[in-house]
Amino acid sequence: MSDSTLELAYPVEIGDTVQVKQCLDESLITTLDATYPRSIRLDTIKVSLMIAACFFALIAQFTPEPFPESRLTLGICVSLYFMCSGLLQAVTTFVEKDTVFTAADKSFEVRTELKRFESDYCFKVVVNEKVVFSENWSIGLFFTEDGYFWNEGFEAKVKEVVTQALGKKKE
What we know:
Order of helices and strands: HHHEEEEH
Number of strands: 4
Strand content: 15-25%
Pfam families: SPC25
Shape: elongated
Structural class: alpha+beta
Keywords: Endoplasmic reticulum, Membrane, Transmembrane, Transmembrane helix
Radius of gyration: 21 Å
Organism: Triparma verrucosa
Distance between the termini: 34 Å
Membrane topology: Multi-pass membrane protein
Family: Belongs to the SPCS2 family.
């Protein structure tokens, strides 16, 4: 990477794998959104569950009855709140897994992984639950030592890889 082609966006603490993965995933979504329509079905389900949980919390908090008489209402609201929270956690853990992007026509999805204390970002393109492309990228390719993210380089790599993977899919 020469200084003339390197455009730095903002610093990231490169020792914080959660922050690094979030930065890479957000850039990936933005890049793919520009070319492929994205499915927001799971996002809609998760937001709906969060809204329902907040609704039950509001009812429990602002019920007009004084405490001893409102125990049944509070118990029901707390139970429903935890049920919504549990469903949200189940959707995130068992349905969404490590999927970052799903095409609206469900033709492909992109999954990523960055394990704790690791420097390799695992990028997978999945078609019909079958991995058609998988590659590990060192985060050093896209971050400087000071933690500045090279967004343009990452976007170019994502576009190249997804185009290549979807080309394999058609063969």
